[in-house]
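User: Please predict the structure of the protein below. I'd like the answer in structure-token form so I can feed it into my own downstream comparison script.

Assistant: Understood. Taking the following sequence of 190 residues as input:
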Amino acid sequence: MKEIMRMILVLTVICTVCGVALSALRNATSARIEYQILTNVQGPKVKLVLEGSENDLITDRKKVMVNGKEMLLFIGKKEGKPWAIAYETLGKGFGGEIKVMIGYDILHDKLKGIQIISHKETPGVGARVTEDQFTRNFKGLDIGIKFVPKNDGGDIDAISGATFSSRGVCEAIRKSIAIYPEVKKMVVTS
């Protein structure tokens, strides 16, 4: 009986030490991981989406609360004044979630463009949503159009053979447009 209690105590101490060590490691590296994601994943995409901005988009970002969720908002400026914003939303593709960075011209309420941040779509088929040939179709579109593939009665040309992926991107854009007025107000009034 004493052996079992001793073994339980030793295992508890080992697990506690490991848990504390992992927690400390996570806390110590979280800022660096966030910086790397901003620099190497989101940064290049947001620069493409908010092309023409004169400010440092990574520095001029802010965290905002929208519908009870924290969101990272990138603000593009010209002559020191906000003119464009970008943020991420998710859509459901064939292989899983598609994370899309969507940029807006807040002066004209039009899409500046989109970039795919991450996806799990089929290589060579659904993964074609990342190609410029597809993403450039969204540049300059009015936010009032029907962001649904044409074969579903909408205004967007889907990628042949990748209907689910195209629907996922359109879903992400619709979700983004749904919160756009609230997000725009945060930028315009700040």
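That's the full token string. The CA atoms of residues 120 and 168 lie 11 Å apart.
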